[in-house]
Amino acid sequence: MATRIGTQTIKFEKFPVIKGFASVCGLKESQGPLGKLFDKTFDDNRFGQETWEKSEAVLQQEAVSLAIKKSNVKNSEIDFVFAGDLLDQCISSMMGLKNLKIPFLGQFGACSTMAQTLLVSSIFIESGAARNAIAVTSSHFCSAERQYRFPLDYGGQRTPNAQWTVTGSGAVVLGENNKNLKNPKIKHVTAGTIEDLGVTDSSNMGAAMAPAAAVTLKNFFKDTKTSPNEYDLIVSGDLGETGALILQELLIKEKIDISKNYNDCGLMIFHKEKQDVHAGGSGCGCSASVLCSYILQKMTKKELNNVLFMATGALMSPTSFQQGNNIPGIAHLIHISN
Amino acid sequence: MATRIGTQTIKFEKFPVIKGFASVCGLKESQGPLGKLFDKTFDDNRFGQETWEKSEAVLQQEAVSLAIKKSNVKNSEIDFVFAGDLLDQCISSMMGLKNLKIPFLGQFGACSTMAQTLLVSSIFIESGAARNAIAVTSSHFCSAERQYRFPLDYGGQRTPNAQWTVTGSGAVVLGENNKNLKNPKIKHVTAGTIEDLGVTDSSNMGAAMAPAAAVTLKNFFKDTKTSPNEYDLIVSGDLGETGALILQELLIKEKIDISKNYNDCGLMIFHKEKQDVHAGGSGCGCSASVLCSYILQKMTKKELNNVLFMATGALMSPTSFQQGNNIPGIAHLIHISN
C-alpha cells in the first residue's frame, strides 16, 4: 500500500526495487566527466538513422534493452512501460519502444519526466497493478535544438544562461521486491505542482524551473520530517548553474540549507569550460543518464545510500513561448535508499 | 489492491468511484445530437482568448472546475491531476490547470488520453496514493488543425476519411468510495500496446487506430472471461466511420461480434450529413466530452449500467509523418459499472 503523508508525499511499505538500469549517450557526453560510466556511447549523434527523431528513438531502445538484460527480468514479466521525451507528441518514445509489445503509457513532464516515470511506476508496482515496469526518458541535442530553438545549421549564438541538451537516455527496470533484493529501493515520492513566476526567456530554463524545485523539496522535508543532512546526495535534474543557484537561495529563505550535499545532473555531465556548455546540461536525458550511471552505480556499491533525485521541467512549447506566454516549472522528487 | 488478471487487465477490489464529471464544448458541438447534454457550451471558439491554445486551456479549466463543483469534493482533498491534450508539450493542460495547485502529472496517449488519465487515476486511488484525482483531456479544432494539418485560413480540402477534431473537454473527479456511493465505478482497466500496421495517411486516423482497438478489446474479453453481450455499451473514442468498420471486421475474424451494442463517440457527437464532418468527430476532447455527458449521465440514471469505454490514439507528430513514418495506434480500455 502507498500511504499519503503530509501535504503531497507518498510513502511506500513494500518499497519498489530497482532491478536494472542502463544509460546510453552520444559523443559529447562520452567526453564528459561521466563518459566512462555510461553503458553505451556512440561516436556520432546519428546512430545510423536518417532523422534526429529516429536517432533519439535508438537511445531509448538501447537503454531499455540493456536495462532489461541487466535486471534479469523477462520481457513477459514487465507489465508497463512509462516513457516520455521532449519532442512533440513524445514521438521518440513511441518509435523507440513500439516493438516491445508491453502496455505503454506516455508521460509528459518536460525535463522532469524521468522522476515522473519512476513515480508512476512505483505506485503501479506498490498497488499490485504491475509486477515490473520500465521507466525511461531521452533527449537529443539535435532534435531538441531544431524543435525548440533554431535549425542547427543556422549557428545561432547561445546566451550565457542557455544549457546544452544532453544526447542520452536512461532506463530503469523497477519491480516488486519478491526476492528480498538488496538493490536501491524507492522509499518516498513527491509529485510537484505547477509553479509560474513569470519567466518568459526560453534560454533560461534554470530560472523557470528553480521555484518549482524549491516548493517540492521544501514540502518533502516537511512531509517526511527530515532535513537535508540526512541524505548523502540531493540531486536536481537539469537546473544548470543559474537554476542551481536560485534553488539554493530560495531554500535559504525558508531556512533550508542544502549546500553540503547538493548537486545538479546538468553540472555533473559536462566539463563546464572545456566543453562550452554555458550553464550546463539539460533535457530529460540529462537526469536520466546521470541517475542510471553515476548515481545508481554508487548506490549499488553502497558508496551512496540515501539519495533524493528531483527532476525539474519547464512547461512550454515552441508555440507557447513564441506567443509570449510564461514558462511555468514543475519538479517531482524520488527518495531512493539502500 | 489492484490485481492483474490474464495478460494485461487490472481488476480492482475497492472500485474507484466517479464522484463528479463535466463536459464543456464549442459551438459546432452544441449544434450536434448531444448539444443539450454538455454542461457548458460557447457561442464561438475563441472563448475570449487571443490564441487557440489559450482557448483550449479554457475548456479544461471550465470542465475541471464544474466537475469538482458537481462532485462535492474539496480542492484540498484532490491529490493528483492527470491531464493531457493533443498539442505539442500538452501545453493547453499546463496553461489551463496551473492555478489548481494540485500535484500534476501530464499524460500523453494522443486521442486515447481520456482512457489513460482514468486508468492511471484509478490505480493511484486503489493504491492509497490518492484520495481523489482528476482525469481530464481536451482538444480544439482550431489549435489541432493548424498544428497537425493546415492553417485554417488556407481552406484545405478534406478527404472522405478525415475526421473533425472536437472542440471540447471532459473531466472526471475519481475517488475512493469511502461513503458507499452508488455512482458509476471503475471495475477493470486494460492498458494497450502500441500496434503498427504501416498506416502513413494522417487523414485516416481511424485505420491507424482500429488494429490497436481490436487487440485491446480482444485481450479484455479474454482476460475477464466475458463476451460483448454482457455489456450495455461498448464505445470507442474516435475511430470514426472508417475505423469503426475496420474494428468490427478485425474482431469478426477473431469470432467476436460487437455489432449489437457498439458505438463510437466520434459518430455520436455530430450529425454526419448536416454537419459536414466526413468520417466523424475526433480528438481527445471527443471521447472525453461524450463520456462526461451522454454516457455518464445515462449511467447515473441507471439507463446504462455496464459500459466499456475504450479511447484510441494515433501516435504521430507533424514531424514524424512529414518524415514519412508510420502512424502506430494504441487503445486503453476502462470498464465502468454501476
Describe the structure.
- The structure is a homodimer of 338-residue chains.
- Chain A has 338 residues and is α/β, with parallel strands linked by helices.
- Chain A folds into two domains: 15-175, Peroxisomal Thiolase, Chain A, domain 1 (3-Layer(aba) Sandwich); 185-337, Stage V sporulation protein AD (Peroxisomal Thiolase, Chain A, domain 1), CATH 3.40.47.40.
- In chain A, 34% of the residues lie in helices and 24% in strands.
- In chain A, the strands form three sheets. In chain A, strands 1-2-10-15-14-11-12 form a seven-stranded mixed β-sheet, sandwiched between helices. A six-stranded mixed β-sheet of chain A has the order 4-3-9-7-5-6, sandwiched between helices.
- In chain A, helix 2 packs across helix 3 and helix 6 packs across helix 7.
- The longest helix of chain A has 20 residues, at 52-71.
- Chain A starts with a strand and ends with a strand.
- The mean pLDDT of chain A is 96.
- At the A-B interface, strand 1, helix 3, strand 6, helix 4 and helix 10 of A face strand 1, helix 3, strand 6, helix 4 and helix 10 of B.
- Strand 6 (104-108) of chain A pairs antiparallel with strand 6 of chain B.
